[in-house]
Every structure is written in structure tokens, then in C-alpha cells.
Amino acid sequence: MIEFIRGYVDYVCPEYIVIDHNGIGYEIFTPNPFAFEGSHGAAVTVYTYEYVREDVHALYGFLTRQERNLFAKLLQVSGIGPKGGLAILAAGRPDELARAIEEENEAFLCKFPGVGKKTARQMILDLKGKLAMFSMPAAPRPATPLSRELAEAVAALKALGYAEREIEKIVPVLREEAMTTEQYVKRALALLLK
């Protein structure tokens, strides 16, 4: 695979750019070719993804490795091809997309061109938990320790097989009231089974 091409921007149009590298013009499809327009005649580095099929041999280019790697992940989703992947990246930032997938926000994903409910669901199924490198770290929250009873209830939920992320979603609700460990467990189970 070609990791990147460093050269001069020779041509920019709505679908692709042409990078002149030592006298060879590489046609590279990008999410936003006009991001390179101000670089006409200037040296740039374009991180590439080489897409090869029976009837297609194309280069797709990105400003960052992060964008390129997210594009490669999107291509792994059933129903998303290179054009769809480019459209998704052109319409949003990698961290927003990763966050929407992790939070299972189908409504946000359906706002991307060519993404309906079925494709949004498939994106979540195929990519959830695999995009941590694209997420921006959340602002640090002040850590307030859990009460002894709540900490015991959390330990009990983990022993029952509930995932850390499921438990983290309900802890803020549980913190609102002071209860016994048993009451916390019952309330937590009611919330988790909704």
C-alpha cells in the first residue's frame, strides 16, 4: 500500500486532486478536494488509501493519518463503499463520528449522505468499540468517590456480568439517592433492564 504521496498540487476539482510527484500526476479522490485549493503549486503530503478491485484501481487521499484510518474502518462496514466513506468524512469530523457510534446515536449517523437507519445500525454493530483511537478524550470530571453501599452494588453488578460501560451509564442516576447496597442493586437492575 502507498502510505503517502508528497508532491505539488497540480489540479483541484470537485471530485479529486492531482498531485505532481517527480513528474507523475497522481489522481487522488478526497473527502474535500477544496481543502487543497489554497495549496496549488505548494508541496503537500497526502495520506493515501489504495483501493483495488477487479474493475477499479483508485487512490483516496486524506490530510491526516487519522482520517485515512477511519476511512479504512468505514470500508469494513457492509453497505459502505469508497464513495460513501468519502461522503461521510466530508460531512463530519472523525471524533464526532466515533462518538456517535460509541453512543449508538443512529439519528446523528443518519444525517450523513447515503446513510439510512439500516446502514447506521450496521455501522454501530461493526465499529462500536473499535474507534477509541479516533475519540477525543472527554473533559476530565472531578472524581467523587462512591459511597460504600454504591461501590458494593457496582461490584455486585460486575459479578453478575454487566459491562463497565453499562454500569457507568446508570451510576449518575443511582448517586441521586442514598440507599442500602441491596436497594442500589435492585434500582440498578431495574434501570439496566429498561
From TrEMBL:
Chain residue ranges for the region called Domain III: 145-194
Keywords from the named record: ATP-binding, Cytoplasm, DNA damage, DNA recombination, DNA repair, DNA-binding, Helicase, Hydrolase, Nucleotide-binding
Location of the Helix-hairpin-helix DNA-binding motif class domain: 72-91, 107-126
Highest taxon in the source lineage: Bacteria
Alphabetical list of InterPro entries matching this protein: DNA_helicase_Holl-junc_RuvA_I, Hlx-hairpin-Hlx_DNA-bd_motif, NA-bd_OB-fold, RuvA, RuvA_2-like, RuvA_C, RuvA_C_sf
SMART domains: HhH1
Entry-linked Pfam families: HHH_5, RuvA_C, RuvA_N
Any one GO molecular-function label of the UniProt entry: helicase activity
Cellular localisation: Cytoplasm
Subunit (UniProt): Homotetramer. Forms an RuvA(8)-RuvB(12)-Holliday junction (HJ) complex. HJ DNA is sandwiched between 2 RuvA tetramers; dsDNA enters through RuvA and exits via RuvB. An RuvB hexamer assembles on each DNA strand where it exits the tetramer. Each RuvB hexamer is contacted by two RuvA subunits (via domain III) on 2 adjacent RuvB subunits; this complex drives branch migration. In the full resolvosome a probable DNA-RuvA(4)-RuvB(12)-RuvC(2) complex forms which resolves the HJ.
UniProt similarity note: Belongs to the RuvA family.
Role this protein plays: The RuvA-RuvB-RuvC complex processes Holliday junction (HJ) DNA during genetic recombination and DNA repair, while the RuvA-RuvB complex plays an important role in the rescue of blocked DNA replication forks via replication fork reversal (RFR). RuvA specifically binds to HJ cruciform DNA, conferring on it an open structure. The RuvB hexamer acts as an ATP-dependent pump, pulling dsDNA into and through the RuvAB complex. HJ branch migration allows RuvC to scan DNA until it finds its consensus sequence, where it cleaves and resolves the cruciform DNA.
HAMAP family: DNA_HJ_migration_RuvA (MF_00031)
Domain remarks in the Swiss-Prot or TrEMBL record: Has three domains with a flexible linker between the domains II and III and assumes an 'L' shape. Domain III is highly mobile and contacts RuvB.
Full protein name: Holliday junction branch migration complex subunit RuvA
